[in-house]
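re: ur question from yesterday

yeah so i grabbed the chain u mentioned. its 906 aa long if i counted rite. heres the sequnce exactly as i have it in my notes:
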Amino acid sequence: MKSIAALLLSLASFVAAAQVALPPGVTRATSVEGITEYNLGNGLRVLFAPDPSKPTTTVNTTYLVGSRHENYGETGMAHLLEHLVFKGSPNFPNGMAEQARRGLAFNGTTWTDRTNYYASFSANDENLDWYLRWSADTMTKSFIRKSDLDSEMTVVRNEMESGENNPVNSLFQRAMQSAYGWHNYGKSTIGARSDVENVNIERLQAFYRTYYQPDNAVLIVTGKFDEAKTLAIIAREYGKIPRPTRKLQPSYTVDPEQQGEKSVTLRRVGDNKYALALYHMPAGPHADFAAAELLTIIMGDTPTGRLHKALVETKKAAGTFGGTFSWREPTIAYYGAVLPTAGNLDEARDALLSTLEGVAKDPVTEAELERAKAKFLKNFDLQAADPQKVGIALSGAIGQGDWRLFFLQRDRVRNAKLADVQRVAVSYLLPDNRTLGLFIPTAAPQRPPKPELVDAAPMVKDYKGDAAVVAGEAFDATPANIEKRTERLRLANGMKVALMPKRTRAAAVNARLVLRLGDEKALLGTQPTGDVVADMLNRGAGGMTRTQIQDAFDKLKARVTFAGSETQLTVTMETTKDALPEVIKLVATVLRKPDFPAAELEQLKNESVTALEAQRREPDQVAKNALLRHGNPHPRGDVRYVATFDESIADVKGVTLERVRAFHNDFYGASNAEFAAVGDFDAAALKAQLAALFGDWKAAKPYSRVPNPLYTMPPGEQRLETPDKANAYFTARLRFAMRDDAPDYAAALVANRIVGADTDSILWKRVREKEGLSYGVGSGFTVSSHEEHSWWTLSAIYAPQNVKRLEAAMREELARLRKDGFTAKELEDAKNGLMQQRRLALAQDRNVATQITAQLEVGRTMEFMAAQDRAIAAVTLEQANAAFRKYVDPSKLALVYAGDWSKAPK
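ran it thru and got these structure tokens back, copy pasting raw so excuse formatting
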């Protein structure tokens, strides 16, 4: 039964929604947990999830069309339309470029049951009005032209080939094809190559006109926005779209229950081995789906899952995984294991299947169920507290049948009984329901329950949900406001602390702790022990096992990560006000009292070696490693040295427990540390706790930052072979003398954005839009806050047969820019987009915590960022051109190409 407080909050949410003025033709449908649905006369549904505490707005436009709706010869159509919608409409001929110019973080995604377009931006009426007008215009007026289809074809094919590079993706795709006999879920969303390459434009246009209509769409607006004003814009822009006369036909294909094991084998060049088991499961809206999701945690979680214990801890595999797709119609649960080159695949497969299908003899326990619930509900709460994530989550629930399923699924998980989870496990985890292995005749075959379609409407008809999440304060996240709110201090041992308290949605708080370790001389020969120590910290500490530590963080609804190297350790924390003291306490235990269990070290080494073995055949990893090694002057053993894959594997194998413990004893301490917290917390209590837990912690060996001086990087070209890979990778780099306080830093930053740092850049428009050579192409600019050592990087993925065209396009554009320079419009668009991007970053508390800890290290405040903003705004065309010509000389580039050159032109 709900508490009186919860009922009052729910009532307040309903009253607030009821107070929004309704434009003509708009009706209010329902409200659940602070989210309100409105309906337009043409069938468009609108969801509002306001949150004034975060100064960003996110808009999701979800169309109820995905690969499930494609007919024979139409595979990939939904995904193709996602690309072509960005190609323009009558009132927005270049909407993608305009979104980049405005600094919007945007994209589109296609899945089985829905296609979703989204954009996040710093909250302002102009951007919201513009994006809603663009979205409305593209709903029924997108060009969907033959010329755009032709130019985008190679981009989509490049994306397809990029997926084919991954052996797990390829294995999964083929297993899905085998698992489904008739249903479209067995077909890849990106489509069959023959369908994509031979698609008829008139047929694609007809597909668009059928599904891109207001009665087949849901518009979701989350974050900070004026509800009445936004609803009026929606009514004005979308309301004029007529309701279509066509009637959408419901899908009715359902695969019959599987009647025997299926198998698929894939043979390709590679190092790792994989075992994958698929099992048919109930549809997402089905009441049993909650049990299916809990099963994937019980079986597939690391390190608490049964598969991890049965395969990884026994050294039969390097890693395990599991998941269940939240689909509208009967779905799939998947479980798998990854093995190193020398692993025994038969042994791992047998252990995988016996663990999964042995649940009848070894039933699920109450402890396993409660642990799985805690993890699911933690992730739900963290997702529900973030307006951007809520929009994506609602889009997925809409694809299943109704947005309220997002909350209903939480309720079902929360109320799941052990008997239900066990019943689902023994009903579906059967050999006859499995895709893997060989066919085996049996006299008494077992059959899973018959799949059935589910109508979500009656389930959610009167659904009310919990009380709406309490919103935080409205805070304008400018550098000046952040600085005004931030308090800085030092602990007794020298640790630097910065606190920025504010009221946030669901009392959320983000914190970041950075430990600085050792010096150049003391760290000599320690690689990769520092990385291993960082990864080992939460695998056992203070007498707690890895599972107990993870369970404790889950119960606190905290997302905590430990990441490090030889020179530093970074801890990120995302939790709530009430849980923060216990989270900090547990983090201190993990950092100061690690147990370093021997069995966990062996597991970690096995995982690391397996990952390295996989990387050395991937084009992007091979190219990046070669580029980092090129010109590197540091000797092996120096922490700045970049090892080969073979050297890295040997180094990991050589790490011992004694070295791990010695590294922690020598270098870990908080004397040279920075801590920042942003969000809802008690500042006085937090300061006292930090002093008590870290104020006396000093490292045995002193700290002095390892310098990273500029070194000469000889120009030249490397072509590296990665056999049997459909996609190739290109990267290039220039190193030069600059620090982030240089007079021309802002001009160089703007110049890089014009050249290749967004989807309106010169390289994007030439290489992707005009030539259709790459799904992803761009440039990056990395600058130091310490010494004058910065670098500029180019990168692109592409098909090996297009390598000459890619080279020519890159060279021509760089030469043209050095000769002719940028235009005034390119400059203004880049400056505006860059400023919007920087403002959007500050709206994320985790980014603010990162920014503040970096400032603490070098003795800066947010005024430095404000000064950079002013400098960016003041950059002139002459300054941007001068910076580009000064720092980017194509003749000095070091270039690396990695791919299967047997597929390239001779």
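noticed a couple things. The chain has 33 helices and 24 strands. also The chain has four domains: 4-167+185-238, 273-382+403-447, 479-694, 716-903.
anyway ttyl
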